[in-house]
Amino acid sequence: MSARCSHGGPGCRGSRGPQVNQCPTMLGEGGQMYAVISGHRPRSPDGVLRGSGRHPCRGCHGRRGRLESDEPASVPGMLGEWRSRTSGPGRGVYDLVPVPGRVLSLRRGLSQVEPPWTELRMKAPIPGTTDEPTGPVGSSPSLSRLLSGPTGLGTKSLRFTPAMEPEPVPVPAPDAQSPPLAALPEPGPRPASQRIEGLYCPPAVRDDRALADEINDRLVQWAEQEVGLYPDTDLREALVGFDAGRSVVLCHPDAPGIDHLMAAARLLIGENAVDDYFCEAEYGGSADRRGAVLIVAQSAIDPAHNTPRYEADWRAGIEAHPALRSMRSAMDYFYALATPAQAHRFRHDIANLYLGYNAEGDCISRQRTPAVWEYLVQRQFNSFRPCLTLTDSIGGYELPAQLFADPGVQRAVALSSNASTICNDLYSLRKEQASGRFHYSLPTVIAAEEECSIEEAFQKAVEVHNEIVHRFEEQAAALSVTNPLTARFVTGLHNWMTGNHEWHAGNVGTRYATSP
Composition bias, kind Low complexity: at what positions (predicted)? Predict the structure, then answer.
């Protein structure tokens, strides 16, 4: 990230000379944080995001230089708001200002968080528009709107600030070949949900049934017309019944529009298609032959590069299978709104997911129940992590790679994805046991290791889940005071974890159950 200082200092290489700042945040005198907020900004030909804000340049003995564009006036965090000291162009000096209700004990961390979200509601696209990914958001008003936090039904009681009227969201030009889409009705009432007794998880911040239904309708259109995901109407009903639309609405309340939610939904469906077709016996999958097909599945999002002849064969192979077509298409949509670093992050997380699939396949093929510690290691890879780490991409901003790689952030990612996946273990236990196949999950491995009943093991698994959630809350609370972008990212992880729990609870009685 390049900056030009507004003064000449020893580190500035001359008056108003260029200075390269390798770090997006630096700590100034008195503990205040000087932050550069990296949204979707125009890139230079070398692909570098150009940020803005004031900073204490090291060679200038802490005197403030300036970068060259606008910053938001405030950024919501989990412990307070990062508020700019200045107004107008050149914002960038931020202090963490505690908000009533958000000075938290470390032990409970985010469990007491009540974000001061403004009540904004995502609107349906106007009739005649298409689901093309939106362009980069670079203007200060747009960025301020995105950073205002989760929106929509169910957030009014969480407000500390007056409601703001959002600026109109730019809508892409209509595509003459695409059928018009009807406007969404007003969101209906929140569906009833049943939670597992004693399972700790704060409530989701937004639910919108009408928006979820619109996403489901568009998913069916994509599955049938673009990728041919399923061969018959029974599978169409299964796709709609899975309710991926509600999942992404719950898990990504800060998404700036329906295109971002659709990107998350397509990837979710693509990942499930790979799991179903290559890992589940009902669709022809096999536990002992996953490796070869999963490598090919990875190439659907991480393209092969060799010779024209064999690349053509590879492309034909991808197009020949519905799961591979789905992942390839979903990734193409994701490329349109993500940065190269975010796309690379997703590819890496999917490779780790497939590594977890292979570990599970090895145990299933030998009908071996792993030890609890080994199972938890497997589950950290075979988890929802790829869905959680999309939170900044779907939220319309970017957590820079050097911040994402921070060990504290990685710990928060691991804990939130582990808790989310164990939540699935608990709600799906009855369904898996009823299948008659060899299966293992956290309750079953605890039952085997401790020689206890499945009911007792279920309660022990609930306790493990709760402890992991509390540890995530502690980690996220500590990270939230370090940097406004990191604060927003861990808020996104928290939103995904709580939305995932609400989605599972809302499917009790049809897909899931609250007891073994």
Answer: 135-154
Backbone angles phi, psi at 352, to 5 degrees: -65, -35
Cα within 13 Å of Cα(305), Cβ side: 2
Strands of the 93-98 sheet, one edge to the other:
25-27, 33-35, 93-98, 80-84, 74-76
Q: Which two tokens stand for residue 415?
A: 């804990």
Residues 6+ apart with CB under 8 A from 373: none
Paired sense of beta strands 25-27 and 80-84, if any = unpaired
Query: CB of 67 within 8 A of CB of 52?
Result: yes
Half-sphere exposure (Cβ direction) of 303: Cα atoms closer than 13 Å: 17
Instruction: Report how far residue 239's alpha carbon sits from residue 268's, in angstroms, rounded to the nearest whole number.
Output: 11
The one-letter amino acid at 273 = A
- The separation between CA 126 and the C-alpha centre of its own chain, rounded to angstroms, equals 26
- Extract the tokens encoding 480: 């939230």
> What pLDDT does 417 receive?
98
Tell me how many degrees the CA angle 408-411-413 measures, rounded to the nearest 5.
110
Longest dimension (CA), the chain: 75
For residue 510, pLDDT over 70 is answered with yes
Tell me which residue of 231, 268, 230, 222 sits closest to 247, measured CA to CA: 268
Provide the CB-side half-sphere exposure for 324 (13 A, CA): 19
Closest among 96, 101, 104, 107 to 474, alpha carbons compared:
107
Secondary structure element (H or E) that encloses residue 448, with its range: helix 442-450
Buried b or exposed e, range 385-404, using 16+ CB within 10 angstroms: bbbbbbbbbbbbbbbbeebb
- Summarised one tens digit per residue, pLDDT across range 37-91 is 333 333 333 333 333 333 333 333 332 333 333 344 454 554 455 555 444 444 4
- Neighbour count for residue 222 (Cβ, 10 Å): 20
Cβ-contact 45, 51 below 8 angstroms: no
Give the closest residue to 376 by CA, choosing from 312, 297, 445, 463. Answer: 445
- What percent helix, strand, coil does the chain show, rounded to 5? 50, 5, 45
Per-residue pLDDT, averaged over 109-126, amounts to 32
With tokens 């590069």, the residue in question is 305
